[in-house]
Amino acid sequence: MKFNKSQLLCLLLLLQVSFVVAIDIAPTFSIANTLQSNMVIQQGKPLHIWGKATAGATVIVKTDWSSKTFQTKSTLEGKWSIDIPVPKAIPGNFNKKKISISQGKQIKELNNILIGDVWLCSGQSNMAMEIKPWLPWLLGANNFRIEIENANYPEIRLFKVRTDFKALPEEDCGGNWEVCSPNTAPHFSAIAYFFARQIFIKKKIPIGLVVSSVGASSCQAWTSREALSDDSVLNKKYLFPYDTSRLSKEQLDSVVTFEKVVRPTLFYNAMIYPLRNLNFTGSLWYQGESNRYDSSLYTQLCAKMIYNWRTLFKNEQLPFYFVQVAPYNWSQNDNNVYEYALLREAQSNIRKTVSYTEMVVTMDIAEPNDIHPRNKQDVGFRLAKIALANVYKEPNTIFQGPEYKSHKIENNIIKINFSNNGSGLATNDGKEPRQFFIADEKGILHEAKANIEKNEVWLSSDKVKNPTEVRYAFTNYPVTNFENKEGFPTIPFRIKLK
């Protein structure tokens, strides 16, 4: 049979359409992208495995730590999921595990898997900051060359969630599980790495890190629409202005980056919700710079986000350990401004509002002219100390610095009593404590003379006869020296005396 040119063209188009349709209806078999070779899976909790398959197909899962075969059927929409029991990690046992997942003759194998603890690490640029430099903005962690050279910890694994933002919750996210080595460590979150290294050294179990962090992002960007709309104050402040801006997807794509990273829900939808089926030991959070003018609402906002995450991950007691923002001179050249101190106060109040939370103080290791301080080792170490004390139940672990407890006034000397003194109060330079101020009757602040007397600090000022207030490290960028003998800095505070 012969065809003219028009008939041949129609036939070719028909074949092309048939081929496309065949592709569209071809059986699919996949697993969630967060489940990969090289991952760490959470010990002692069921591993939730999920993906897509042909409608009604049987999916079979086998693991080399169990003799049992697990199976399930996909739904009419082609979705499937199954929970696999996971044993407790054995300290010092780093045997690699394997998972085989199949639909018919299609088989997917996950290899080089370890069983240990998985931590979610989120926030903005100080959490995202890698060990290596990213010039000219990020200078890298202290001694980054030596740190990278020595980063041979194959029992530490990292999954960096690909940066993305969505108006609606996404089912999955991008990213790859990597084994910690001198080749991969440069790209690790420095704080997350130093945290994991300390936990691994102490507990000898594998540590997985899921880093979902974006520079300049706001707290509301990591919180769900439901959580924000459920609170009338937060809804009015954050969600309502976003909803009424009426930006289309095309317009949103053209919005400058900074406006995107502070818009509510977008990172939650793209970078937290897709992790909903993972189990975590706890979460680490370093964020606040982009909410520095929101001190009156930040405690409420962050608390709402914490409850939101705990609901998503089905763990009402999920530990949440966060870093208080470090001193930074916002080009104001004025030591009397303190809107950043108000934010730190709001952060500190999270501990009093939400259970299973703790805070790292960074007032002593700051670089006031660099919003990304390079000493990420101490930050990671302090986060690890919190986890070792509260999650891993290490006895007699000091993890917090002195905190205001009470005061009394005798002979015009203000005597401040502290808790969390460890083995005693001290300064890191052998000098008198800095950054104590006393307000007079007019509210004018005067630098105080401060002396350590056992578990107290005695304050006085020749310029103040009737003190009305005490402030400690309550300006934007004070670098402090007051701590306990274990090296944990004192928490900033302010108190009214009358």
Please summarize what this structure is.
It is built from 12 helices and 24 strands. With 498 residues, the chain is α+β, with helices and mostly antiparallel strands.
Topology, element by element:
Blueprint: H1 5-25, E1 30-31, E2 40-42, E3 47-52, E4 58-63, E5 69-73, E6 79-84, E7 97-103, E8 106-123, H2 125-128, H3 144-149, E9 156-160, E10 177-179, H4 190-203, E11 207-213, H5 225-229, H6 232-243, H7 249-254, H8 257-262, H9 266-272, E12 282-286, H10 295-312, E13 320-323, H11 339-353, E14 357-360, H12 376-390, E15 403-410, E16 413-419, E17 425-427, E18 436-439, E19 445-447, E20 449-453, E21 456-460, E22 469-472, E23 482-484, E24 493-496
Parallel strand pairs: 2-8, 8-11, 8-12, 9-11, 12-13, 13-14
Antiparallel strand pairs: 1-3, 3-6, 4-5, 4-7, 7-8, 9-10, 15-16, 16-21, 17-23, 18-19, 18-22, 20-21, 22-24
Helix pairs in contact: 4-12, 10-11
Structure notes:
The chain has 498 residues and is α+β, with helices and mostly antiparallel strands. It folds into three domains: 85 residues, Sandwich (Immunoglobulin-like); 272 residues, Rossmann fold (3-Layer(aba) Sandwich), CATH 3.40.50.1110; 94 residues, Immunoglobulin-like (Sandwich), CATH 2.60.40. Helix content is 26%, strand content 26%. Strands 2, 4, 5, 7, 8, 9, 10, 11, 12, 13 and 14 form an eleven-stranded mixed sheet that branches. The chain is globular, with a radius of gyration of 27 Å. It starts with a helix and ends with a strand. The N terminus is likely disordered.
